[in-house]
Amino acid sequence: MARRPKLNLSGSHFRDSYKVEVDCLKVKTKLSRELVSMLINTELKENTQVREYLEKSYRLLFEHMSGKWRYNEPEK
User: Fold this and answer.
1) Is 0.70 surpassed by the pTM of this model?
2) Cα(66)–Cα(63) distance, rounded to whole angstroms?
3) Which residue, among 19, 29, 21, 20, has the nearest Cα to 4 in the 3D structure?
4) Handedness of CA 61, 64, 68, 73 (dihedral sign)
């Protein structure tokens, strides 16, 4: 749905009222864009952390199955 300024035709200062409404819509739009941008960045960081964790887990599992490392006896 398109957003448009609310008009106060009965007011004495139509131009000022219209300008304030336009400015308000611009600020709301900017806030919404910044919020979406922040959410995207947060999700990208989380996805990167999960991917790195899974890659490390699979690499260690593969190395263990290939016999590249083994559990050692605990030191005394």
Assistant:
1) no
2) 5
3) 21
4) positive
User: What integer is the mean pLDDT of 8-29?
Assistant: 80
Return the amino acid letter for 49: Q
Amino acid sitting at position 63: E
Contact 52, 46 (CB under 8 A): no
Say which DSSP state 70 is in.
-
Token look-up 């106060």 returns: 8
Tokens coding 71: 């559990």
pLDDT by residue (tens digit) across 63-75? 888 877 766 776 7
Phi-psi domain of 67 (left: phi exceeds 0; alpha: psi -120 through 50; beta: other): left
